[in-house]
Fold these 2 entries.
Entry 1:
Amino acid sequence: MVNVARACSGVLLLLGGCFAHCRPPDGCARTETRCVGNVAQICDANAYWTVLADCNLVSAQSAERFVCEFVDEETDEGRVTGHTCMPASQTQDGGSR
Amino acid sequence: MKGRLQALPLVGAIFRWREVTPDEVRAFWHHMSERFDTTTVNKEEATEMQLVARALDLLGILDRDRFLTHFTTTIGKRIYAPFEVGSPQGGWDLWSQVVICVHEHQHVVQHDRDVLAYEVSYLTSRASRARYEAEAYRSNLEMHFWRYGSMPSTRRLAELLLDYGCRREDVEVVAQSLALSAVSVRRGAVMNEATRAAFDWLDKNVARLRGQSPA
């Protein structure tokens, strides 16, 4: 039983390792953000780029079109800077940057 | 606390005033279950959850009772709820039962979208777990904004990830992710699929609750 559990956890870790780290880290800085096409990405704690929000999907679910944009805003919790989905009608060029 | 007050006989009605009703909570869960083809199971009665709770306790990760009473758990399309849907109780007032329903269904969306990669990387990578939870907690932001027209603390939400075995650096990334998501949500973005399904039902059935100031 213990051997079965060990084998299962080994397979799980192998799969997990593969899903999470089959490629070398992207080398980005933690919490750094960017737009790739119309997708906002954020750099995770392991230095990989990951999807923060797909603005095309957001557009499909919202009342208007959203595009990936850099924002710099003062909020109740302090200043927020980075890339996220913003209404196309409120951006300068109406497109992704 | 609010859930315990809502559950009180007679006076409980005072704390349910201007609230979603138990029948509405049940109808909402039914809507979400139908939409995403999920099953809800009582967590304390599920043998598999008892085993997980014991394992987490023995490993020193999470206290058994805390896991069984404070955390809703989703595996695949089965949602293990530590409360009876529509019955308020300590820690689970009626509105929080609606919010957790959306949060857990976003995990179902992740399961459907990423299949095995979701389950495996959630269990084995803290950064991946943080990313999946950040996405699910985004539903909490969206629901709070729909209900109260304001944002909860994204930092406080991110720190909940410490309970999931995530590191401080993961929390930092989740806090940034949620803060940026909050900027989009304030501009009218509906970012999560589970939230979209929730809003469809809420706008149609309990629109009176939208934009209420917190009690």
Note: The two ends of chain A are 55 Å apart (CA to CA).
Entry 2:
Amino acid sequence: MGTQNPSAACACHDFNRTEALRRSAARPGQGLPAIEPGMPTPAGTGLSRRGFLLGSAGLALSVYGAGRILDPSRFEEGIALAAEASNQPVIVSVYLQGGIDAMSVLYPAGDPLYGKYRPVLGLSAEAGPAFTEDPRLHWHPKAAALAQLHGEGKVGVMPAVGYTDPDQSHFTSRHYWEVGATQADLRSGWLGRYLDIAGTADNPLQGLCLDESLQPALATTRVPVATIEKPSSYAFWARDVWGPPQEIMYDYFDSLGRIGAGARDAEMAKAGNAALMSSTLRRQLLPFQSEGSSGSPAGYPSSTDDFPSRMASIAQLLGAGLPLQCVSVSTQSVFDTHESQVKPLETGLEEVSQTLLAFQRDLERRGLADRVLTLVWSEFGRRAQENASAGTDHGAAGCAFVIGTRSAGRMIGEWPGLAGGLDELGNIRATADFRGLYCSIIEQWLGHEAAPIIPGAAGFARPVVVR
Amino acid sequence: MYKGHFGKAQAERLLWRAGFGPKPGQASRLARLGMRGAVLSLTRPHSRRLVGPAPVLENGQPIAPYDAWGNDVLWWLDRMVRTNSPLIERMTLIWHDWFATSNETVNSQRLMIAQNQTQRKLCLGSFPRMLKAMTTDPAMLMWLSGAGSTKEAPNENYAREMQELFTLGVDNGYTEHDVREHARALTGWTNTWNNATGQAENFRFEPKLHDDGVKVIYGQRGRFGWTDSISLVLSHRNHPGHFVTRLWSYFCPEPLPASHQRAAEHLYLSSGRQIRPVVEAMLMHPLIHSGPRMVKPPIVQIAGMLRAIGRHIDTDAWVWESSLVGQTPFYPPNVAGWEADRWLNTGTWLARFNLTAQMIDDSRKITAPKVKPAKPARVKPSALTRRALAFWGNPTIGQATIRALNSYAKSAAVDAASADWEREQYPLLAEGALRALVTASPDYQTS
């Protein structure tokens, strides 16, 4: 299919759980829906899929339940106001789908047990550039672009980030990362809660997701956020309709939307909200229509998927002065490499690394680099021992990166080593906690207290992430 | 059981929930059967025929479902459009979502269609039979790494999803240990690779690859094999609850009341885990007929629009359109299937809006009257709205929306037109816009 990705390797991903989604009725304005009442929740995780629901009209979800009917003109005003003061720091969250194999991205060629755990998948020490902060580790050759940025002091590397009592379900573990806590019942995202405090009621672009649907990290309970696939492709058309009848038609998106949004019926409201937000977005993105182009933008790697162009769009939107604060995007490459992982991992990793480098260069060219910090993460790493299908199964600690000219550029945590660094299931133990990372980003980068945003914030060590 | 009025509007909703919307006149005909008769006509169809011309591409050539890109999608969409037993196709779509398998990984349209035919054949029969068939289905064996999972290296993929998604629900009464033990029980399936075609073939069970040791699953010990694995999970006390909840979720966004949920679980068990009796009871439930509305799944809406305008498959545009609206059959996003509560967002709403333009081929364009009147006729806005609604087979649309459409018609066709040519042209343009606005309305996006 046109939008499919050749590097999608395997299928067990449960990150977006349909079933629960379907079971639940979105509760606009109330963030993520609760675990459904009838579902037994055994000790431990007990996470219902419903917890993952992010509302159809993701963006719409948060706004209207607060009992207000959307007035798009108010958004435009809010955005204009916010744009005037747009020197705020921006955090870009890049999600590597499926649990990337950290032991391939930074492979421990210098670990005496590496060959034992990775007899087929293992790479030789010469294959990839050395990781200068730990002689045991090497960058995967396809991560050379990341290594280059690291050499410039712009990448803070977390070689084994995770949490205690790791969960091996994509769904559950991703949920934890998205909400910023190992809590099954938390219904808003960590960036969403930041925006609820620091954002405004009239600027949906403050939390922007470039995807088909909103990433849960941006789920707010109070303020609006938005999602868009690609700014340049947002064009409506009706056959043989032009001139004033066409312009007036656009105005009626709002009339139809209000009828739905004001209905008692939850699904009518969803459809109405989708119309209203689409209409608002159409107006906001009109200036970008002419910039539309197919294929990857200059400087970005060519790809069959939208990841590079979405990253380019972020730079473009920021360059245009739009008041983005928290942005999320996920790779279309899927790193859930249960079998024959070499090729798909190479393809995906290369695209991601080159895109991140291109994005950084793009920001630097536009003079925006000091305002943007990029966090790259995945729901878990993979098991140390490769499986018999030349792949790897779900593991525990994985890797994450904090990229930017303002990134401290220093390793956070450490590689625990294969001797003694594995848990009883043979998974890599975390040497840094993602919640501590979030606290640091909130405090050091966004300039806000983490306590009201990250549950149990006081208990986490704060690594230095920003210089 | 629903006791209220069962008229055209109710029949129309039933056809959207349990099928792909009405063909012209179909809702009224169905309404005459009464609620019960209508449901039974869907669950026990007399025939399973496809009515109308076979699918073709733009060049007039027949489709090649096994071989040509996207033609698998067209093959199924055609069935949705032409079927006279819509529930069969809808149930097949439900099972495709339930056991979501993507050709992205399987990489064989032939295997995907074979799986689809199995799901169609078993769609209202026994769930244990369905689970057995899916567990050993070649596409599934490829998709969830069942093929090649051996005694030496059991792969947990299928074992996990069988419990998490297909039968019990996430973390609903099983442990990581159970996942690993099920994985052992399920070992032994394999296939050969055809060097000439690069395709997987000859899927089979090889006893020598199977781990015949003792396993402990849900506290029970035994030398379990794959059929035991299935029996164990189907006998799990949490399975009926999961089955009913998930099945119901396809028909209605509001959960069943607890007592009805229990009754449905009981019906499921007492019928010997049959699907049809549960579906029949569900489709007769008051929440279906007088409960909340439900956003139409994208592919259901595409098929329904085609049914309404009487268009058959004559282009492969529907393949990429289905991708834009967020649901390409045979390509679910992951093993959990589509995220049905996230159908609508700013991206898919755009795509749904633009669908109308694609639906209107040359033969359905709005054209000026052949004989030009001496001076432009007086335009009645409500007449333009009526014509646009009639184009879509007169779907049930709320009064507030009708008023908004009429208001648009007046602004665009009357108020905006001053010059003579504008008074001639704008009504035609407005009628075109109204066709799109009808399907963009919250009333039409839901059923």
Note: Residues 1-73, 290-294 of chain A have pLDDT under 50 and may be disordered.
